[in-house]
Amino acid sequence: MESYGEILKNKRLEKGLEFEQISSETVIAVNYLKALEEEDDSVFPGEPYLVGFLKIYSDYLGLETEKLLQLYHSKVLQESPVPEGLIVHEKPKYLVPVIAGAVCLLVLIGVIITIFVVKHNADNENAAVALAKSSQTKKYELTEKPLQKRLYKGDQIVLGTGAGDVIVTVAETTQSLALETPAGVQHIDLSEEIEVDVDGDSTPEMIVYVSELSKNDKDRGAEVRIVLKSSANAAMGETKTSEIPNAEELPQNQKRTVILEDTRAYPFTIRADFRAGCVFRYRPDRKETTEDFFTNGDTVNMTASNGVRMWISNGNTVKLQVIANGKTYDLGLTKAGQVVVQDIRWIKDTDGKYKLVVSELD
């Protein structure tokens, strides 16, 4: 029976492709491509890498990926040692009564332990239920450090003021985030950032930004970022207009697509949904770069104030959505096997408006 390595090699030779060309277009190192054809598992740092690269290589060559994965798993099973429990050993006849007696003893011990466990659980049932109920909601104290949490209905935020502690309660997380404060209920929409006056003194005490929430599933909660409004951190989470480049300063031959335009710039969220395996790297607001291998069903949410740079080894495997000002914008997929490097960021155009654009990079 043909192996997955032979199928890959024969298809590559049939198409007249060199490893260097395939590596350039799939972003898989040449040594990994050769290892796949030679079925050398030792080259890969782990099985997820081998399986992920096998999917990408197979899709690139236009092969039946599921068939190749089945061949790979069959090879793994064949090379695995036979479990000790499946090896039949001839047992001496005198062991039969000994084993029977041991089984009876074990059954008796099992009955005694079961009775003890049932009684113990019954004694502690009420305490366990009370503990579960008390852990359904959480309380967070807002300090100088930004609070980045997924909040659920009933959760509370404690804000210290000159007049004492003020309690802000999460009243709703579907459609919009509703915060119940002594001054009333404040609603914040998806991808919206607002200043909240919690005690009704006409002075905002905190800044709230919502990066993710569900329209109808209350159990998912809402991903939020909350900071104290002060001279030290009032600008945290806000878009820095001084760092937004002017359109005329950018390369004129650079391909750009306008997602939206407004009279102001504000934070936005990018949602990446993966439908196949690929290497994905991203860096929001020039911060630390994150890189990992993602596969079908994975999701990544990136929140940025000014912009995000993304690097995708296979653009056709990722569906991107931009969430800004409470609206969602879909970005189209690219060709299979195409490496994508792009910026999604704010720029200031010659008409004085701010535009959120997608810029293709070499």
What is the number of strand segments? 19
Largest sheet strand order: 10-19-18-15-12-13
Rg over C-alpha atoms, rounded to the nearest angstrom: 29 Å
> How many H/I helices?
6
Written as H for each helix and E for each strand, in order along the chain, the element string is HHHHHHEEEEEEEEEEEEEEEEEEE
Mean pLDDT comes to 80
Proportion of beta-strand residues: 25-35%
List low-confidence stretches: 85-89, 126-135, 231-236
The main β sheet shows up as: 6 strands, antiparallel
Q: Label the overall shape.
A: flat
Would you tell me the structural class of the helices and strands? alpha+beta
Describe this structure as you would to a colleague.
By secondary structure, this protein is an alpha+beta fold. 27% of the residues lie in helices and 33% in strands. The strands form four sheets. A six-stranded antiparallel sheet has the order 10-19-18-15-12-13. A five-stranded mixed sheet has the order 1-3-4-5-6, with no helix packed on it. Strand 8 and strand 9 (222-228) form a beta hairpin. Helix 4 (47-61) packs antiparallel against helix 5. Residues 85-89, 126-135 and 231-236 have low confidence and may be disordered.
Topology:
Layout: H1 4-15, H2 19-26, H3 30-38, H4 47-61, H5 65-79, H6 95-134, E1 139-142, E2 147-151, E3 156-161, E4 164-172, E5 177-181, E6 184-188, E7 193-196, E8 206-213, E9 222-228, E10 256-262, E11 268-274, E12 278-284, E13 290-294, E14 299-304, E15 307-312, E16 318-324, E17 327-331, E18 340-348, E19 354-360
Helix pairs in contact: 4-5
